[in-house]
Design a protein that fits this description.
The chain contains 9 helices and no strands. By secondary structure, it is mainly alpha-helical. The chain starts with a helix and ends with a helix.
Length: 205
């Protein structure tokens, strides 16, 4: 019981230190001092500062990546002839689910989004964007088989558009927007990008 209490104290102090100074600027010596443990005792719990940071965020970051990839897999299982008419409904549901989870675990996501430079989590949004880009390319190829004529645009622009949407989405967590306001913003942000995609992709036969 005491060991669990010590770990929780280390994590609580570390979260504050990381959020204030970022992973790179955070002082392990300061964390240990405030937690009231020796450096040797700390290394009995964690091998490094990065392992400590990972302990604070990995469960939640992996869960959101899993939601996103799971939604993509679910979408790909429906008949391809129905992809064009269902794409926006699936993405809307996925964005809402990700937001609700991120909101309930916002302390961890603030660390990922604002304090993770120097860790494996610094490219968190980019990982989501990569999955979305890959899915978009698959979508292009398949709806072309259904005689749709999507507009294939410059890869750099494509990456900018997708990155812009997810960066804006996670700003709601960074700025601690109240949940109901955040859900409204998620819906309106999705509607905005849905209209833009429909226009740019020219999803019509």
């Amino acid at each position: 019981m005491a060991e669990n209490s010590t770990v929780q104290k280390i994590q609580r102090i570390a979260a504050d230190e990381f959020l204030e100074k970022g992973f790179r600027g955070a002082s392990l010596r300061e964390i240990v001092k405030k937690a009231g443990v020796t450096t040797g005792a700390f290394y009995g719990y964690y091998k490094s500062k990065e392992e400590l940071f990972d302990a604070l965020v990995s469960q939640h970051g992996d869960h959101v990546l899993g939601i996103f990839k799971g939604m993509v897999s679910e979408f790909m299982e429906i008949p391809k002839s129905q992809w064009a008419e269902n794409m926006f409904e699936y993405s809307d549901r996925g964005m809402r689910e990700i937001y609700e989870y991120a909101y309930e675990n916002k302390d961890a996501f603030r660390l990922i989004l604002s304090a993770s430079e120097g860790t494996k989590w610094e490219n968190f949004i980019h990982k989501i964007v990569e999955v979305e880009v890959e899915m978009t390319h698959i979508f292009y190829r398949e709806i072309e088989k259904e005689e749709y004529k999507p507009f294939a645009f410059d890869p750099t622009l494509e990456h900018m558009i997708i990155s812009g949407e997810f960066s804006a989405f996670f700003e709601l967590i960074i700025h601690d927007v109240p949940k109901e306001d955040g859900l409204r913003c998620v819906k309106e942000l999705h509607d905005f990008y849905q209209a833009a995609w429909a226009s740019v992709l020219k999803i019509e036969k």
